[in-house]
């Protein structure tokens, strides 16, 4: 009965990137509907967007908005959310920290040029001294292959996504975190993730000036 | 074995207030350790209690949880306020994430630069009345039930009612055109645990004032 999930967003990473990663890692095929301005207005007018915003994912008869709601549903459905509420709590704690760092990276692309250097410096500092340090410590503390519960969860997927993004900003940042590098390699070698990392997959390239212009046009800012 | 949850934060609403509301609504007694100086925060940081060197932090069931969403999710899961299956959970998440977006604007309002304050207040009012409140009013209208999701109390109802109170503090007229939201607010406010929390002398914190803001600036060094 349920067809493939349909993802409604513009053709770029933005706030849909984590959803692509998670669906791909879970081995779920999905379709995409890329927006232009007129499409966004249409979605708003036909009541498809609860808060008039995208991302929106049509899945299992629902039109889900809000990135966390979408990600949590997928993680729950495909058993990537731990085995009990305590494991869920750890996973949530880790992914929320990742989301804070990811937010800084997303915003970097659209803040005024004169603020970019300072913001970039802050991202690097926080990455090294706060976030990557915290996740390296966790991996070290239990010595297991995955962040939580000794099995794959969406925390591992998000972390690896973040590691790639940060490498794109500065490849040196991950240098002093051997366990994170090992996790990145391990997760990247999972068949579904490996496929997603190949050219020709639905993974989007990093934003550039051209794609930012597209974003500004569609979302009118 | 498990003592009461212990909340670590400063003595004000900020990012801990939703947690206080949810625990209270679930009928859970909790303790609070108020940070009173920057040194108190430094101490928590240096003894490794804060995964990302930030509060809120809640000691609960042997864990030191940080990140508001993680804390709220755990409490909601533990006390059955998160729906009965993953689809109800998805709806609850969608609703509460919308609420969190509006709430974030309200939380940050006290620290906005004075020349931006009016514009920010106007935006909050516009978003509340044109985006968020209509969306939740529509949900209640669509099923005609007493609660937002699954015909029973969930965290979505608690978070919404907290938000309604906060928005009304900003401007009481903002909820005027939303009869179903007002009815929900009354209904939830009359639940015994919530009623108790709304009385003077409870652990509910008052709106931010200049003194609290000074204290927060001092403790969090901004």
TrEMBL record, chain A:
Domain named GST C-terminal: residues: 84-207
GO cellular component: cytosol; extracellular exosome
Example of a GO MF term: glutathione transferase activity
Broad enzyme group: transferase
GST N-terminal domain boundaries: 3-82
EC annotation from Swiss-Prot or TrEMBL: 2.5.1.18
Presence of the UniProt keyword Transferase in the record: yes
InterPro entries per the UniProt record, alphabetical: Glutathione-S-Trfase_C-like, Glutathione-S-Trfase_C_sf, Glutathione_S-Trfase, Glutathione_S-Trfase_N, GST_alpha, GST_C, GST_superfamily, Thioredoxin-like_sf
UniProt-listed GO biological process terms: glutathione metabolic process; xenobiotic metabolic process
Reactions catalysed according to its record: RX + glutathione = an S-substituted glutathione + a halide anion + H(+)
Pfam families attached to this UniProt entry: GST_C (PF00043), GST_N (PF02798)
Keywords noted in UniProt: Transferase
Database matches in CDD domains: GST_C_Alpha
Family note: Belongs to the GST superfamily. Alpha family.
Name this polypeptide is given: Glutathione S-transferase
Native source organism of the sequence: Carlito syrichta
From TrEMBL, chain B:
Pfam family membership, one: GST_C
Residues of the GST N-terminal domain: 3-83
Name used for this protein in its record: Glutathione S-transferase
Family: Belongs to the GST superfamily. Alpha family.
GO molecular function annotation: glutathione transferase activity
Broad EC category: transferase
Keywords, comma-separated and alphabetical: Transferase
Gene Ontology CC, one term: cytosol
Top-rank taxon: Eukaryota
Chemical reaction(s) catalysed: RX + glutathione = an S-substituted glutathione + a halide anion + H(+)
The GST C-terminal domain, residue ranges: 85-208
Gene: LOC103260055
BP GO terms, sorted: glutathione metabolic process; xenobiotic metabolic process
Keyword Transferase: yes
Keyword Transferase: yes
EC number: 2.5.1.18
